[in-house]
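Here is one chain, start to finish.
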Amino acid sequence: MMREEDTEDTRERLLSAALKQFAERGFYGASIAQIAAELDLTKQALLYYFKRKEDLYGEVLKRITGNLLAGIQSVINPADTPQEQFESLVLGYYATVRSNPDGARVLLRELMDNSRASAPREKWYMKNLIDAVLAQLDKVETLSDVPRAKKFACMYQIASAVEYFTVSEALLKRLYGEEEFAALSAAYPEQLRAQVRHLIECGHHDM
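Its structure:
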C-alpha cells in the first residue's frame, strides 16, 4: 500500500508539472498524458489523483490564487493607514507574481481562453483574489465616493501591468539584453508605487 506521505509527494509533483504545462500550452493544449510523462507516470496513475483534466486545472488555479492572496496579506501591516496598506498590497502582489511567472501565464491564459466560463461561480478562484483587492481599496477614504466600477477598472489596470510585465520578461531580455532588463526590473516597483500614490492622492478627480 502506498504511504500517505508518498501519495502527497506525488500529488505535489503532479501539480508542479501541471502548472508548467498549463503555462506553456494553456488548458486546451496541455494533456493528461503530457503531464504524467513529465513524472514518468502513466495516464492512469495521474487519474488516480485527479479524475479529469478539469479537476487538475481547477486545483492549479486554486493554488495560484491562494498563493497570491497569501502574498498580499502577508505584507499588510495593521498599524498602517488604509492608503499605506493598499500600496503594500500592490507591491506584495508584484513580488508574488514575479516569483511565480508560470502562475501569471496560467492566469492570463485562463482569461484569454475563458475555458472555465461555464464553471460554477464559486469555482472561479480568481474572483476571490479580485474581491480581496477591491475590499482593501474600499477602505481608502479619499476614494470613498468613487463608484465601484471605477475602482475595479483602476485595480484591474494595475494588476494587468504587473502580470503583463512578468510574462514579457523573456522577450524583453532578448530585445534589450540582460543589463537593460535588470535596470527596468529595478525601476518597475517604484513606478507601481507612484501609480498607486497618484490614484490615492488624486482620488475621484482623476478617475
